Structure formats: structure tokens, C-alpha cells
Amino acid sequence: MGAMKWSQTLIPTSRQVPAEAVVPSHQLMLRAGLIRSIGAGLYDYLPLGLRVLQRVMNIVREEMNSAGASELLLPALIPMEFYAQTKRDIDYGDNLFKLTDRHGRSSALGPTHEEVITELMKAYVTSYRQLPLNLYQIQTKYRDEFRPRFGVLRCREFLMKDAYSFHVEVEGPGGLNGTYDRMYAAYCRIFDRCGLNYSIVEAESGPIGGSASHEFMCNSPVGEDTILKSDKGNYAANVEKCAIGDRPHDLSGPPTGELTKVHTPNLPGIEGVSDFLKVKPNRMLKTIVWPWMAETSRAREEAGSAPDAGWVIAVVCGHHDVNEGKVRDILRQRIDRSLTLQREDSEAAARAAGFAIGYVSPAAAVGKSDCILIADPDAAQGGFWATGADEMDHHVKHFNWKRDVLDRGVQVHVADIRNAMDGDPSPLNDGGILCASKGIEVGHVFKLGAKYSDAMGFAVLDEKQQKRSVIMGCYGIGIGRIIASAIEMNHDENGIVWPASIAPFDALITPIKYEGEAREVTDRLEAQLTAAGLDVLVDDRDERPGPKFKDADLIGIPIRLTIGDKALAQGCVEMVKRDGSLGKGEMVKIEEVVARCTR
What we know:
By secondary structure, the chain is α+β, with helices and mostly antiparallel strands.
């Protein structure tokens, strides 16, 4: 990218910490003049910020191309009927930016592009001989975040690299697994080259869907995602995916007393009820209700017939949180593969069906043949329990699983259905203990299967001339998140300390006064360093040395070359490395500067 004079570009540095910025990366990106906020979750990328973006994108492109992917560019504006085919208009809900054009056509600004790439492939790929293919783009994405925060870590408009692979088989040559492994390895190279300290964890697929996925998480205390790792170092997952090791349960314990109803009006959640009843949250039961539907019944429902449907009642201890993904998987994998958990308007539907939301107990399943009751092992125990009374503003004490549920004809499925916590047993059941930490998601790889190709009618002819569903993989990287994560990991009280590979410039030349011999040496070094392949910024401002040095520390260029009269008198320049590896600096002969900067 060459050389640049400070006076010829826009680097609006600031000594003040912006009031709206609460995490270091947001503060420093604003103070160092990388970005400027123009609205909630919306940012200008200024020249320094754009140079960092370009360096990150170059690394991403090099590794994606090396892994066999080809770059293209898809439109950001997507017809809503694409999302309707896959029901992601429902799954994304309010996070979709929706608009209607002058002709009344409904569209959305794309958060990801599974539907668009599938439609493209459907138009041109008809035979298994044309597969596998792996296509990617780097493009602006849009999500209508309810609460944009933490600068570019959670914003409404952002750059993403998204790749999509297409296959006929999962295993073997040309199969999904081979490409998935290559993308996984490419991601490791990308994040290594960007200087990130990251963990790879098992993950939930979320609204994108799929059978398997891994997240690449930068280890950071400001991360919004919770990571759980075994202290034995052999298991890691995010909180949505993390399984918990075996825990004993016992539903046969005797009652601790008569079931006693208590009036609990206007109490805010478990904590409020716990204080009122003088019962610890870990001795209360929390119950969540979702509707389920049998997939085979959808056609009957659309035809006006009554569907095969019912309710899932999920129960955990009061101090735990139900994990919807685990409930969904238990429903399909252990109870009935045809059953699907319904997420849309589930609370409203449950209220309409007569459930006293906020006051539901496990006994709500009694007498209802369409109810499936699932309890987490920690909740499936004897002893004292308090729970909802299945009546608004009322709870009960001395709930007993055997007396109040089992003896009344209800089957209880006991399974891991809660979010894992620090101190839980590892799911490998090897004596490991899960330890919680925070992380920033910078990349995610998915095995999508045929979800999108089936929904959009994309099939190819195989070697026997029979139609086969196309199997997909999806691979995303947040470009801006890499930058913010790098800053979170590499900063000090003076500013940013860039990893050399993604710094906006490789070297900063700071003449004390840009005139006379200092100017001549500055210009000569600028030309030599540029010829050697380095990007150079020259601070040619008519400014005092103190502010120049403070700005140099703030913007974090890896190498600073200071040119002043004392150094020049010795035929030297002062070299300082931003990472502190040269201490307060070192005098380097002018003729040795290029070699020292490039080695």
C-alpha cells in the first residue's frame, strides 16, 4: 500500500475517552481515529481503520484461495421470498432489515447469504460432476440489533467473509467433511497470522442451522459469549452447545410435607419469589413451555386438518437456565425424530392453551396426553421443592415428583437440558471439571447438510442419473471483529499495540522537525523502506515532539523511527518497537535501518 504523509491523510486522534465506549477496543478505535460513529451500530472506517480492514481481508483472501475457494460477490438486497422458502424470515425475526420498494416488492438486507448462493448454484449446477464447489465473498452484512454495543463487536452493518461449499457426499473424495477440515485449518492459519489468541469450541448452529459446527473464539474478558473448557484440556464448547457430564437423579423420594399453595403477587422472577418464600433458588423449579409439531402433520395443517401437535414442558432448577437447543435435540433424538420444537410466538401460544406462564409446574402435564415432560437431572431429585402452582400469582411448597407427577400417570424424561456452568462435570466423564471464561466469536464453520438445498429445490443428478440433494457447508468470519479482538488482546495504557501483520503501517518515521537534514534522511528512508516492501507513515506535522510521540503510541505502529539532531549527529536514528522489545529505544545507523526493519 506504500507510503503516506500524516498531513495528507485523516487521522483524528483524541486524548479523551469517549463516554459511549465501555470496552478498550471501542475506546481505542475511536481515539486512534480508526472509526467514527454516525448512529447506533453504524461506523465510518477512516483511513487507518480501512488499511487494517484491507490487511485482514488480504490475509483472509490468501488463505481462502489457498484452501481451494473462489471469490464472488452477491447482492446485499435479497428478495423476501428467498427467506420465506427456508423460513428464516421467521427464524431471524426482527433482526432482519426489511423494506418494500416502489413496486411493492418486499426485500431484506442480507445478514448471511445461504439462500442467495443456493439459488445461484441451482441455476447453473445440474450434475454431480460439477461438484464439489466452494465459493466465498467479503461483503457488508446487516442485522437490526436490538442493542448495538461494544463498537464494531456488535453493530448493525459489518463486513463478513462468508463461504459456502456444495457436495453430493459427506464422506470420501469431494465430500463435505474434507472441505470442512480444510476450512477449519484455513481458519487456524488466518487467526494465527492475525496474531489472535483463540480457542476452538463446539457450537450451536442457531438460525443458520446444520448438523455440526465449531466457533473460533478470541479469549477476552469483554466477550459476550461464554466458553466452557474442561480443566483436563480435552473439551471445549460455547454455553449454547456445552454438554454436561453424567449426574445421578432420583424421582422416588418421599414428600417433605403437604402441598401448600402460597399467594405470590407481582414478584419479579425466581429471585423475587425466592426471597418471598424464603427458599433458595436451587430448591425451586423453573418450568418453560414450548409447542411441538410432528413434521408429517404440516401438510394436514395446511389442508385444514388438525395437526399432530402438543407441548414440551422443560424443568430445571431455579438458578439454572433451560437450553432450548438441548430440549430440541432431546425431543428429536430420544423421543421422536419427527417432532419439531416451535419457536415462533411460543409464549403467546402457551398462554392461549391455558398455561399460567411464569407459574407453570411439572404437574401441568397431568391429564394431558399431548404433553412431553423433560427434567434436568439436577431438578429430578427428591427433597424439598417449591414451584409454580399452575395459577397466576401463586406458587406451591413441598412439590414431590412421585406424588404429584409420576403417581398421576405422567412419564418424566430425565436429560441434560440446561446451560452448563463453571464447576459442572465434563461431558467426557473423565473427572474433568468445566471452567467458564468469556470469548469473542471471530469465526464459525457449519455443516449445513441439505437444509437449504431441500427447501429451495436444489438437487443434482448422480452417476446413476438419479436426483440427489446437495449437501452444504457454511464458513463465516467477522472482519471487523478480528480487528477489535486484536486490540482487546494487544493494548496498554498508551494505546494500541498492533500485531505486525495487520497494523495499518509497518513503520512510522517521526522527524522532530521535518526540515533540513532531518527531512532529507526522512525522505530517503521512506523511499528505501517502501522499496523493501514496507508500508510507511511519515509524521510530517509541524507539531511538538510530545504530542507526536503520544499519537505514535496511540495508533500503535510496530516500528517508530525518530529522527532528531542528536541522533543525526551520530549518523543514527532512534528505533522504538511498540511492543516494548527494544525497551525505551535503540540507536541504529542510518545505513542499517532497512535491514533492521525488514528482518
